[in-house]
């Protein structure tokens, strides 16, 4: 397996490539970019930019990348795509063994300094996700967290994402009374004009490689604006 190095000037928009080989592209997604197209945005997505990248300017190329998982538009960090349907299928089939760690900064202090938040989530017609007591129609979501630092106003959490439901971390922490700093969707009552960036970062991913079956770990450093709010050795 040969890892390809991409010069900075060729990096796709909004996506710094951290690892690339014949089967995968893994990179650091910038906040503000959709992973895939939505009704309100079709072109300016990481998926679209990576399709252009692998085609290298050829309008006749049929090369494309395949979605393995997604990050919210406001979330930064490690995001992985496959280069073939075969690799995509393998990664999705083995997704339960994939370890996904995040860092986030939330308002306030949590009563329990570590634990697993479990709830059922559902999405309404306005694309808002919320908890539900209807376990028949809700989707089970589990988030493991550890408080790694506290300040008078904020807490830094390391997250182990046990399930990957839409907006899961954001909804569950807001439900706990500790919304993520910068979350204008689920923490509206707490949002300050000076904290406009969502403090949620996909820090690392550990997975089984579809070709050589080795365990691989890819990490994306926490953005500097995290440390400007709460200094910590992430």
Task: Report on this structure.
β1 and β2 form a beta hairpin. This protein has a single domain, classed as Pseudouridine synthase. It is built from four helices and eleven strands; from the N terminus they run ββαββαβββββαββα. Strands 1, 2, 3, 4, 5, 6, 7, 8, 9, 10 and 11 form an eleven-stranded mixed β-sheet that branches. The longest helix is centred in the N-terminal third of the chain and has 10 residues. The protein is α+β, with helices and mostly antiparallel strands and 234 residues long. The model has no long low-confidence stretch (mean pLDDT 90). The radius of gyration is 18 Å and the shape is globular.
List how many beta strands DSSP finds. 11
Class by alpha and beta content: alpha+beta
For the termini, the CA-CA separation is 30 Å
* CATH class group: Alpha Beta
Coarse morphology: globular
Mean pLDDT: 90
Work out the strand percent.
25-35%
Poorly predicted regions = none
Biggest beta sheet summary: 11 strands, mixed
In the CATH hierarchy, what is the superfamily? Pseudouridine synthase
Number of spatially distinct domains: 1
CATH topology: Pseudouridine synthase
Gyration radius (Cα, Å) is 18 Å
Tell me what the CATH architecture is. 2-Layer Sandwich
Order of helices and strands: EEHEEHEEEEEHEEH
By DSSP (H or I, 4+ residues per run), the number of helices equals: 4
Helicity range: 10-25%
């Amino acid at each position: 397996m040969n890892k390809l190095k991409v010069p900075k000037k060729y990096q796709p928009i909004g996506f710094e490539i951290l690892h690339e080989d014949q089967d995968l592209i893994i990179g650091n997604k910038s906040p503000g970019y959709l992973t895939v197209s939505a009704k309100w945005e079709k072109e300016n997505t990481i998926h679209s930019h990576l399709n252009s990248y692998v085609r290298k300017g050829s309008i006749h190329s049929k090369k494309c990348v395949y979605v393995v998982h997604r990050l919210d538009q406001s979330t930064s960090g490690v995001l992985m795509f496959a280069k073939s349907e075969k690799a995509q299928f393998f990664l999705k089939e083995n997704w339960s063994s994939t370890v996904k760690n995040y860092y986030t900064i939330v308002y306030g202090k949590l009563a329990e300094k570590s634990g697993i938040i479990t709830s059922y989530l559902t999405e309404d017609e306005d694309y808002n996700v919320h908890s539900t007591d209807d376990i028949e129609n809700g989707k089970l979501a589990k988030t493991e967290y550890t408080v790694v630092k506290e300040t008078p106003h904020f807490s830094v959490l390391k997250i182990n994402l046990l399930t990957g439901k839409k907006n899961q971390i954001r909804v569950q922490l807001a439900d706990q009374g500790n919304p993520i700093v910068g979350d204008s969707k689920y923490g509206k009552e707490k949002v300050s004009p000076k904290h406009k960036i969502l403090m949620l970062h996909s820090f690392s991913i550990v997975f089984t490689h579809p070709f050589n079956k080795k365990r691989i770990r890819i990490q994306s450093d926490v953005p500097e604006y995290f440390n400007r709010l709460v200094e910590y050795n992430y």
